[in-house]
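If your schedule permits, I should be very grateful for your opinion on a structural question. The matter concerns a single protein, recorded as an amino acid sequence and a row of backbone structure tokens. Could you please explain, in whatever detail you think fit, how the structure tokens follow from the sequence? I set the record out below, with my sincere thanks for your time.

——
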Amino acid sequence: MMRLCAAILVAVLVGLAAVGLGAVVGGSRAPDGTEVQCDLPVELHRRNTTSRGQGCCVWTSIHHAALWQNVAAYQEAPRWIQEHGVPGGVYPGAVEKYLPEMARQRGNTGPGLPQLRGRRPGTVEAGLPHGPDACRDVQP
């Protein structure tokens, strides 16, 4: 029975990858086939890491946005989080707490940090009509 379950799981995963529903790293297209708008050079891409057993995907995204926009205060955000023993698995309050501290320790104030929350389409676009590109972490 265990072998049957394992075989089904492998078949499902292979099937998802075959139709493009799996995670994609690199390339100039998103998993749904749309072309990316800000194509960070491949040599600057960073894979997700962990801090205290929790993923640092939001911190990695912040790092990528900081590289793209040349904001030194937030570059290497995942490494700062790891070095300071902060768990990954971020929530909006953690970003609000740690980004200013990260910038302060680096002798920088960093840019303002709008936290836009909501489920309505256009929330981010309405909140940032003029200014830096938004770094989004979309949750259902």
In short: The chain has two domains: 1-37, 38-140. The first strand starts at residue 50 and ends at 51.
